[in-house]
Amino acid sequence: MTGNRWKEALPLCFGLFLALTWVWACRPLMASASPDTLYVSPDGDDDYPCNSYANPCRTIQRALNMSVSGDEIRVSAGIYTHTSGTVAVINNTVELLGGWNSSFTTRDPAVYLTVMDAQRRGRVVEISGSYSPVLDGFTITGGNAHIETNHPGVGGGIYSYGGSPTIQNNVITNNVAYSGSTPWGHGGGIYISNASAAAVIEDNRVISNAASTTYPGLGGGLSIYNSSLKLLHNEIIQNVAGRGGGGIYVNDSDGLLLDANLILSNTIVVSPSLDSYGGGIYMEYTGPFTMTNNIIAHNDAPIQGGAVYVYGSNNPYNSFGVLINNTLVDNNFNNTGEGIYIIGKSSLSLANNIVVNHAYGLVAGSNSELSTRYTLFWGNDQDHDTVGSGVITSTAEITGSDPLFVNPAARDYHIMIDSPARNAGDPAGIPPAPLTDIDGDIRVCGRPDIGADEYYCPHYDIFLSLVRKN
Predict the structure, then answer these.
(1) Mean pLDDT across 10-23
(2) Which one of 62, 120, 158, 287 is most buried, by most CB atoms within 10 A?
(3) Domains in the chain: how many in total?
(4) Domain-embedded: residue 4
(5) CATH number of the domain that 256 lies in?
(6) What pLDDT was estimated at residue 179?
């Protein structure tokens, strides 16, 4: 192109450039939903938009109604109620975080107590739909699901159907699933059903909840139905059910993991039908499941299974699982009860467990199979470490030796330096033993210890000190 033609074309090109720039600058913007932060305070106002710390909502439900999936809702310390009874109905994937100070600059749920109280007028929290919300940092109390219109009688503290919540760092206490006069009541503290993906319940205290106050109920602390779930590092204490699962009840659930939980002093009260099973845990039609590093102690069931009761029927409703490095102590001892009782089409494989102070240590009822290896038995009635009409295989037992807990009267089941459980686990090492113990300490001393606790390794501590010093 000649120089004159370039000169003639330049104004046209420049005009085209300006036109395209104007079109781009003035184009309609595509709507995009970016995560937002909403705020709730006892001093807030539900006429506010909740979208700044200076304009917080007054109720948690108002913020939930204003939220979209992906939002974070920050709730400052205080007591939250609602006229409907239920304090929070969650219908999307949000993070609901309690434990903030009044200016929303610091978060510490242990210091800034954030309480949801249903005042016995309904359950406290309800989660519906295939969402994955996070519920973190609350005290959840005062729930009674008896009067609910949506699935009454289940989930006094927290009810979740179809969702896959992460429930963590909460205190769930003094909730009731059912208070009527007919046989009912499931999940005094927490009820999880039909989780669409693996739900997580972690680092909570589930204490003093009841499946039912009057009649048979299942799962004083938790009831889990048809769900894959991880139950990690929780304290499940002094919960009550009428028929089964004083601490935990599980039905028709696959892929369940229970790791590093303290399951203590849960009870089955005698029901009108006298069917009372699984003071600590009751599992039926469930498998595979895995239990590692749990302490299950001082739970009580008048009929069978002071610590754990497992029931299965013909395929596909059999139950099966593995228990590795757990500590079972003083469950149902005064009522001639068992540490573990399995029956029906059930099978358990156990390794590296401590089973102490029961009338019967491990019982395999009709049509069941139980295999155990590297188990430390102590204080169970003579010749009653493993009994029953089922198929029982026991290898590498340790019997006649006190496990030497630090202070069992104070519920301290760490082992002492000269415990026979030390370095006595399956020599295969890790796995089958889990990498860490109930305290999160690494199992590093050659052969793993037996039980939930791994005694610390002096040479390992010295090595770490030298590394830090250098």
Answers:
(1) 38
(2) 158
(3) 1
(4) no
(5) 2.160.20
(6) 86
CA distance linking residue 345 with residue 135, whole number of Å: 37
Contact 247, 222 (CB under 8 A): yes
HSE of 84, CA atoms in CB hemisphere, 13 A: 14
pLDDT per residue over 45-70, tens digit each? 999 999 999 999 999 999 999 999 99
List, for residues 207-251, the tens digit of each pLDDT value.
999 998 777 889 999 999 999 999 999 999 999 998 899 999 999
451 Rama class: left (phi>0) / alpha (psi -120 to 50) / beta: left
CA–CA distance, 71 with 94 (Å, rounded to integer):
5
Domain enclosing residue 84, as ranges: 37-399
Give percent of the chain above pLDDT 70: 87
- The position carrying tokens 């009635």 is 381
- Tokens coding 143: 């729930």
Is the model's pLDDT at 15 over the cut of 60?
Answer: no
How far from 43 is each of 49, 174, 276, CA to CA, in Å? 14, 26, 47
Residue 355 lies in a domain: yes
